[in-house]
């Protein structure tokens, strides 16, 4: 594992919300980024730390991200309301593939790392 802290926090957040067996299945078979974001936002961490982890998981070599964002990509944060700094979702904007909502992005943990 290249980023064990990120993996551990995501695994723990999913386990807390969905239980051990379901979290294991989600990580092995894949789940959407939206599910991971929901679990992170419901965890006891601050919104700021959860937002940082949302980005780290996308760049982590420990997860397979589908679709593959080859080339340049940018994060667009979705906030609770216009004057809030509480992140509630995100989307990924690419130059060549368009914009992907968190529900369109799938993650799976590399097993055996």
Task: Give an overview in words.
42% of the residues lie in helices and 26% in strands. With 113 residues, the chain is an alpha+beta fold. The strands form two sheets. The chain has a three-stranded antiparallel sheet with strand order 1-6-2. The longest helix is centred in the N-terminal third of the chain and has 15 residues. It is globular.
Structure in a nutshell:
The protein has 113 residues and is an alpha+beta fold.
Task: Give the topology, please.
Elements: H1 4-18, H2 20-29, E1 31-32, H3 33-42, H4 47-59, E2 63-66, E3 73-79, E4 87-94, E5 98-101, E6 106-109
Antiparallel strand pairs: 1-6, 2-6, 3-4, 4-5
Helix pairs in contact: 1-2, 1-3, 3-4
């Amino acid at each position: 594992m290249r980023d064990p802290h990120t993996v551990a926090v995501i695994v723990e957040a999913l386990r807390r919300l969905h239980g051990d067996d379901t979290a294991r299945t989600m990580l092995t078979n894949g789940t959407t980024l939206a599910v991971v974001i929901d679990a992170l936002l419901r965890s006891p961490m601050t919104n700021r730390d959860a937002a940082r982890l949302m980005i780290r998981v996308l760049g982590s070599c420990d997860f397979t991200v589908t679709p593959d964002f080859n080339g340049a990509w940018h994060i667009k944060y979705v906030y609770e309301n216009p004057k809030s700094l509480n992140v509630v979702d995100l989307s990924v904007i690419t130059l060549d593939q368009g914009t992907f909502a968190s529900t369109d992005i799938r993650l799976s943990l590399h097993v055996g790392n």
